[in-house]
Specification:
- This protein is α/β, with parallel strands linked by helices and 199 residues long.
- The chain is 44% helix and 17% strand.
- The protein has a five-stranded mixed β-sheet with strand order 3-2-1-4-5, sandwiched between helices.
- The longest helix has 24 residues.
């Protein structure tokens, strides 16, 4: 575990950062950051990459992660901001905001796959970090659960799109709804499949 080596080197406040919703064409991008009280705690034994867990399992582990966090933050990047600045830039900015929103300044930051330029805190981009670093896995669950709940809420505002089911990702049912109804205010208009419909 990466955190074990960092802890042994004397770094105690290790932050993990991850996002949910990069590949979706509707809804916000959500970035979570957290510092765990003890990354080696047995209470966190069920924490995995969010994609490896069922929605029910993610919901069950979500409060456990919050109970075991010294500090946590969840940031939302709107479709409008993504359209204005691009996905990658929005994602990096979201990671910066999520780290800044922590009420404890981390000693070290672990991110899933992407470096965060321009922050003073030492940070490491970990390849497939949500599979090999517990703090990143925990952040991925916070981001995914928060975003899924947001998409379920948006489903009530725009029930014709089926957001509760596909969470804004491109599926055959989502595409069919877009072709039938058109683009909603929560779709990312800079995405190619949306841009061709948003005439």
């Amino acid at each position: 575990m990466i955190e074990e080596r960092l802890l042994k080197s004397g770094l105690s406040a290790i932050a993990g950062v991850d996002e949910a919703g990069r590949g979706a064409c509707a809804g916000p991008l959500v970035i979570a950051a957290l510092i765990l009280k003890d990354p080696e705690s047995s209470a966190l034994s069920k924490v995995r990459d969010s994609k490896e867990l069922t929605p029910k399992a993610r919901e069950e582990i979500f409060p456990v992660i919050l109970e075991n966090a010294r500090s946590q933050s969840i940031i939302e990047i709107s479709p409008a901001e993504i359209d204005s600045f691009g996905l990658h830039k929005s994602n990096i900015e979201g990671m910066r905001r999520a780290i800044s929103a922590l009420d404890i300044t981390p000693d070290y930051v672990l991110t899933d796959g992407y470096e965060i330029p321009g922050i003073a805190i030492p940070n490491l981009a970990v390849w497939k970090g949500d599979q090999v670093a517990l703090t990143i896995s925990a952040a991925s669950i916070l981001a995914k659960v928060h975003r899924d709940r947001l998409m379920a809420s948006l489903d009530k505002e725009y029930p014709e799109y089926g957001f509760a089911e596909h969470k804004g990702y491109v599926t055959s049912s989502h595409t069919a709804a877009l072709e039938r109804i058109g683009v909603s205010p929560v779709h990312r208009k800079s995405y190619a499949n949306i841009a061709k419909l948003d005439l």
